[in-house]
Give the backbone structure.
Amino acid sequence: MHRWRISSVLVSFIALTGCAASGSEEAESSRPPSSESDVPKGTHAITVDPWPKEVQQTPVPTVSPSPSKDNFCYFSRISDRSDAYFCAYENDQGDKVQADFCIASPSTTEEYACLDRGLKWTVLRGIRILEGLPSLKPVALSNYVYLTLTDGTMCWKTSMPGPPHVGDYVLSGFCSDGTDYWTRFAAVDAPSDASSPFGEGTDAEGRWLVKTGTTTPGQLTTRSVEAAYR
């Protein structure tokens, strides 16, 4: 009789401790990172490579412009990548489109994948290279063509002539919130990717900083870059 009672108590104890351990492991596995060191830091610097992953494995819009002097591709004006191009063409809706930045297919001639400001790809097929013009590859302070700021604002590089310098800043591009973004230029000590390609250093999370604002001196705001695409 006593042996049966002792065995029952032991079984109950083992069952209870087993449940407690299982619950503890489940809670531990579902718990968010306990320290900041578990969270990736810094700006995500992305060198886009549409061939083959983004384009060949994912359905994307494809346009085959008609043979015309108005439909052509030429060297990119905002990226110094050897495979980056500017393309002008008429899409299927009859709209005139200028796309910069487009990446040439490494295996097929006259085929390009163009990335727009929404980070969506469009493939152009059968579009000719414009011949006889000098290469106008940019002398870039920053070779990143698209930026996503931490608040979701999208910025894009421009080849348009900008307004006068703001202090030691030069216009680099425009942003979706109506501001412009600016890059510090320094003839002697040019900024490097190791600190910040925009000449502003990094924030507490290690993300690159960039200045945005208007052309009014003293009204530029420092903002963090979540991702940069080149």
